Amino acid sequence: MNRREFLMAGAAAGLVASTRFAAAATRLDLYTASDANISDFFNNVVKPAFEAANPGLELNVVIARPAAALDAVVQRAFAALSTKSDPQLDIIEQYEPMLPNGGIEAGLWTDFQKAGLANYGAVNKLAIQTAYGLPYRGSQVLLAYDSTKLPRDKAPKTFADLAAWIKANPGQFIYNRPDKGGSGGNFINRVVHEVSGRDPLKFKVDNYTQASADEVLAKAWAVLNDLAPSLYEKGAYTSGNSASLQLLAQGAVTMIPAWSDQVLQAIAKGVLPETTGLVQLTDLALCGGFSQAVVPTNAAHRDAALKFADFMLSQEMQTAVIEKLGGFPGVDWSNLPKALHDKYADVIPSSIPTFPSGEWTKAVQDGWYRNVAPNISRT
Amino acid sequence: MIAALRSGMMGGRLSGLLLVALPVALLIWLVLWPVLQAMVGTVYFPGTGFSTASYAYFFTDDYSLRNLWLTLWVTALTSVLRVTVAMPIALYLRFRTGSVAALVQALALFPMFVPSVLVAYAFIRVLGPNGIVDTVLVALHLPKLMSPYLTPAGPIIGLVWDGLPLTLLLLLSGLGRVSIASVDAARDLGAGSWTLFTRIILPRIQSSIIVTLAFNVLGLFSAFTLPFLLGPASPEMMGPYMQRTFSDNADPLNATTQAVITFAFCAAFGLIYVRAIAKGRKGPA
Amino acid sequence: MTDLAPVSPFDASPSAVGRIARRAPIDWTGIAFLVGLAAVILLPLVVTAVWAFAEVWRFPAIVPQRMGLGYWQETLSRTDVWQALWLSLRITTTVTVISAAICFPAAYAFARLDFPGRNMLFLAFLSVQAFPKFGLIIATATIFLTLNLIGTFWGVVLIQLVGTLLYMIWIPVSAFQGVDRRLEEAARDVGASPMRVFWSITLPQAAPTLFAAILITFVNTFYETDAAWLIGLPNVRTMPMVMIAFINNALEVQYGAVLFVFLWVPSFLLMLAARRVMGADAFAKGLGG
Fold first, then answer.
1. CATH number for the domain harbouring residue C253
2. Is residue C103 situated within a structural domain?
3. Do the Cβ atoms of A362 and B124 come within 8 Å?
4. Backbone torsion region of residue A302, taken as left when φ is above 0, otherwise alpha when ψ lies between -120 and 50, otherwise beta
5. Most Cβ neighbours (<10 Å): which of A83, A141, B13, B144?
6. CB contacts < 8 A (A, C)
7. Quick one: closest CA in C to B6, which residue?
């Protein structure tokens, strides 16, 4: 090695060191409590693409499962807001921005409407529940069943069919507790839609009143209590999405509501057999939901986090959400190539009904525990 | 001798305080002060003054009372079951040596190394619907098991399994103070096994039994994972109920109120232990 | 120690010989316990262990339809698993050592000395476990944020140390309180210094219980996650944090099963070793000198 080569090598080493230093200086801490397919998506697809497009930024995917761990970190960020310290949290891939109590009022979450994201205008208006959460991917609940016990052509297509099937086959259906996973929660929401004229637009984030809730929900509880004796173990409810899938996998029940992406993944991994059938109700689909990314206002790297949020809405990433994750895009289909839409038209409907978070969801969940779960009619 | 004792007592005051200073400081700084703040937060509201409304709500709300009642009887039943199962094993281990005893002890203490989440999974795979027990029964052409999964029996079985090691360890360490010689001596005098147990062994391990019960109550009142994963949706045990009120209902006031009530029950049991220790200190040496 | 031997009422050697001679035949009670425990404790564990090797296992097959080492490779080839294990062992050892150093003397004081506020302070330790953690998150986070301890090794050590206080004080107190005072007095009568009495009479008698407290603390701290999440993330990731991320809400139980079986062997060896310190022999050894 001659002197010139030595100097070059030294300079190169210095360069590597300095970029590494720069990267360390702007390490974005992205938290996720979602299932493994989501954290894998961020690590394997999003991270390389984002770092290539933004030299000097590093994406650190922090897995905070179960949700209680993420809750603790959010509470920590809330505490950091009052002490003006670094919450060591830059962005959460999915979190309910209505939490923690008083968070929005205290200014914990960034208002995306005012954040100046170039792609914010492209976001599907129906998916926006609040300006503090950024919907960037969606998923839908459908019914998964064991086609060896229920022939595919006999699978229920309407809610009335479903209710009749549940009653005709006692012990073969189970849904999970509404607050512990959206598959059970959205099954209950579908019942709320059923008793209120199948119009999802009746329920909005800001139109909750105690009186209207009492009236609608009382009817929903009646329907659910009527079904309860025909459920698994005469009215047992699993503790989450995965627990329901496991009962289906064990052959203990014939049908469950399930998240589309999760059930597809379970079939792909062999957890559920090939004979698992999937069906969506045609009179009104079961609800879906959009994952809302949140950015704390006190994040140490807030600007970079917003850059990342904008990046997630880019055509490249939204296409990846559809193709790599099997989810719905968070942006309006009109902002995506038409070819893509045509390709997935059969699998993914262009819009999905949703149920508003906040007061409505709280009323449904707590009301369910008080009125349906105790299973008073059980003899 | 008396003078020496006196000075020992005076020294005892100062050195006693010195010896406990560090843990007590840590406790006050990181636990007591925050707990006190949380408790005051449930009755005093800046701007509006004192109110015990959240407590009145808890004690008039059927649903909350049902949850409290469930927690109480699951705690009582589980503690009794744990002690009943652990006591014979502890007695056996205390008075036997050898490799069989070593294996028994290793096995009985093993659940300690199994995190609760895994206990729940193992439980579902074994006793759950179409689990291994069902599989074997079906293979033998026998009817399937009435699965305890998602019934009140589910968490109790799980909690007894999970808590066996702690109970056993505490009883065993208490039995360490019962000398084999004294038991042998009593036996030589013609005492039966039951007399031996009630007259010789029980009095010596009293404080261990009380501490065992105290820890059981503490652990069960805050138990979360097993009741949540294995039990029915409702009524809920206090652990999952508080957690749900706090995070899903976003209602810290009522959640903290539930926490204070839970705390009061635990403190009552703690007081029994403190009394026992205080009595032992004064009693004949 | 030799000068104390004559006053010991527990001079057990003749009767111990007698007992050994009496139960020369097979230990049937032990075998009965062994069988019972094997069914109750081992069966669920064995099922879990089989899951670690199962790739497809559906009802009503008695053995998995497809077995393999795929999950083992996938799990153990991850560097974060090994890093987390090493980190957990370091944190847990640090916490246990510090905790023993500050708590055992305190427990002795609570059991044997008289000082103002003793009962109140003793009872206060209950709040470590009896008050649910969620009520304290904000207050705790604020303290650690101002100290810049979030996401650091020592931050996690400190928060977990607090979590050990109850066990490390309440359990040893029952030990020190149960020590036979007549022995101590006898030793003092023959001129032993207080330190000497403590080291050769008090400590050996309390040792099995102290060891039980250490064991419980070590294992509990190792598997503690609530506080570790709050203070440790995003930089500190302990073994159970990795484990629970793998198994909580996961469709595949296999990852958890693999990690569990992976921790199985060292745990079982530790348990067998525990018998030497905790067992029937330990007591005799402490006094028999």
1. 1.10.3720.10
2. yes
3. no
4. alpha
5. A141
6. 92
7. C114
